[in-house]
Design a protein that fits this description.
The structure is a single chain. The chain has 374 residues and is mainly alpha-helical. Helix content is 63%, strand content 0%. The chain contains 17 helices and no strands. It has helices at residues 3-11, 19-23, 54-65, 82-89, 91-94, 112-147, 151-178, 187-198, 202-227, 231-259, 264-284, 288-293, 298-305, 309-318, 322-328, 334-345, 357-360. Helix 6 (112-147) runs parallel beside helix 8, helix 8 (187-198) packs antiparallel against helix 9 (202-227) and helix 11 runs parallel beside helix 16. It is globular and about 65 Å long. It binds fe (ii) ion (2 copies). Residues 137, 164, 214, 244, 247 line the site of one fe (ii) ion (FE2).
Length: 374
């Protein structure tokens, strides 16, 4: 089977940048309140209570002392003037758009007002997808607590359930109180979350959530944390990142042990799953719902956005945690470097030798200065 065939089967399209195929994945039920996904996995008891994985036990101890209270530890009385904040944060640039690149396009008539409005919508949309992803993490970690066969991992996963509840709490509250509401889940993100919950293999929950979704989230939170001048959001993101780095480390440390013992065929499944997740996350960042809200047909603007050089840098940054973590897990180079070649096509392989999160998570603890901070 050739690589092209592989990719077509996985993605339902032969070209990575097939705009029609990407935009055809859209949320058709924006009023949906409950969303049901079949969880096919076995719940597993273990009667072996011995401590055999000291690295996971250390994470558990770190998690217990790293707890914070979203209600009392964040300055919720901060006044947030959305227009002022979005203007100061240059949200369009932060989302990968350079307003100077759009003369001669369908939005060339946009003035400061439209760009500001776009920035506000984009900030609401981005925080909303963070929120929905956090709920995905909440469900996934509850699932891992049930499905992972290791005692140390069950203990640790239970702390992550509490962490994720807190993350859902803070993003939901910020959107409601400070942004005046948000957006429904993006269809690409929902499909990815559905796939992760649906899979019966316990390690796939980890790979999809802890390594791919949370790896991307850690990079995206870090970027927004650096860009924003809004003190409440900045502190909120800093607190969430202190948990998130521990979560990614949990995924990397757990899967390393499992993947080192896997056959090529088993690893190929994991490589494909990681690639599919990577593409879905990349597709969601085309933020088609924001364009619709602004009255611009996504198919008229998305091909132009894809050629914006600022966009390219933004997209690369999102993968700065995922790629070194996949390398650490041996996912890049098994099966004739199958995933390495996919990441080369996506233009993100240059991060492979950056520090992996299994090693660097302590740098994100509260009180430490975050990598990339001034
Ligand atoms: Fe989270
Ligand atoms: Fe997390």
């Amino acid at each position: 089977m050739s690589d092209t065939l592989d990719t077509t089967e996985l993605l339902g399209r032969s070209e990575l940048d097939d705009i029609e195929a990407i935009l055809s994945v859209a949320n058709t039920d924006v009023d949906e309140v409950l969303h049901v996904v079949k969880d096919e996995a076995d719940a597993i008891f273990t009667w072996d209570y011995s401590l055999t994985r000291p690295a996971l036990r250390r994470l558990y101890e770190k998690a217990k002392v790293g707890q914070w209270n979203a209600t009392t530890d964040l300055p919720w009385d901060t006044e947030v003037d959305i227009e002022q904040v979005v203007g100061a944060d240059q949200v369009a640039v932060a989302a990968g758009l350079d307003p100077n690149q759009y003369s001669g396009t369908v939005i060339e008539g946009w003035g400061d007002k439209e760009w500001l409005d776009f920035g506000i919508q984009n900030r609401k949309w981005t925080l909303s997808q963070f929120l929905h992803g956090e709920q995905g993490a909440l469900l996934c970690t509850a699932k891992i607590t049930e499905t992972v066969p290791w005692y140390d991992a069950k203990l640790y996963a239970s702390t992550q359930v509490v962490d994720e509840a807190r993350h859902v709490e803070v993003f939901a509250r910020y959107l409601d109180e400070k942004m005046g509401g948000g957006y429904q889940v993006n269809a690409h993100l929902r499909l990815l979350l559905d796939d992760i919950i649906n899979d019966s293999r316990w390690d796939m929950t980890y790979l999809g959530m802890q390594v791919m979704v949370e790896g991307l989230a850690l990079a995206a939170f870090g970027f927004m944390h650096q860009m924003t001048e809004e003190p409440l959001l900045k502190q909120l993101l800093r607190y969430v990142m202190s948990d998130e780095a521990r979560h990614v480390a949990f995924g990397v440390l757990s899967l390393k042990e499992v993947y080192d013992g896997m056959t090529d065929a088993e690893m190929k499944d994991r490589q494909e799953f990681a690639y599919e997740a990577a593409v879905r996350m990349r597709d969601r960042f085309l933020s088609q719902e924001v364009w619709e809200r602004m009255g611009v047909a996504p198919r008229d603007i998305v091909p132009i956005v894809l050629r914006d050089p600022t966009r390219d840098l933004f997209q690369q940054m999102l993968f700065s945690k995922i790629v070194p973590n996949c390398k650490k897990l041996g996912l890049l180079d098994r099966n004739e470097a199958w995933l390495r070649r996919r990441f080369e096509e996506m233009g993100v392989i240059q991060f492979e030798d950056w520090e992996n999160t299994g090693d660097e998570y302590l740098k994100f603890e509260l009180g430490a200065s975050v990598p990339g901070d001034a």
